[in-house]
Task: structure prediction
Amino acid sequence: MRLGVISDVHANLPALEAALGFLEEARVDRVVCLGDLVGYGPHPNEVVARLREAGVACTLGGAEIRVLFPTPTGLKSPENEAAMAWTRDQLSPEARRFLGALPPAIKFMTPYGKARGFHGRPDDPEAKFPLYDPEPELDRHLARTLATVVLTGGHHVPFFRQVGRRFVLDPGSVGLTLGGEPGADVAILTIKPDGVHPRIYKVPYDFAQTAFDIEAWGLPRGIAEVVRTGKPLG
Result:
């Protein structure tokens, strides 16, 4: 089984188009998206429509929660608050319905056993899965997922690790990578009965166009800088 895994699109349509085109050329069997479809970027409705058109199975992300169910201000950075408020105003009713119906997790079988995908933690899409914990602690967290292939998003930096028989992957971010280089992060897993073989790719796209759109729509300029550089603010 060849599985394409993406996450954290963050309303960046040029990056999503590049990622989906790359996976189509790679002839993967299926594609999953681990949440944060919107937020930060300038193309929320277009990204939702494109993922629906492509038939990509998506999970609920923290950005979707913040857009659909506003929390008191001051909990996140000013850039985050401004971007979420802008996205909230831009979303079409159809996009809202789609995002509101996203499941917190997806489950499916692979040749290596059960796979489970979610954003953050299984019980909290706004949290981060403890990928960098020492092996015994991480193993306990992975065991609670009841899966041998665990897919999580939210770190914005690609990560893959094997703990015993379990494999865990964060594919990074399609639309707002923080790995130090601009581009769309994409993972392809070749899953066989004897294990999981990952490949992580940095797919080029016209990030200058996305940065221009961010500024043209009045979104925080710092977000455009992150798109241009692949590096976090500050």
Observations:
- Strands lie at 2-6, 30-33, 57-58, 105-110, 113-119, 149-153, 159-163, 166-170, 184-192, 195-203.
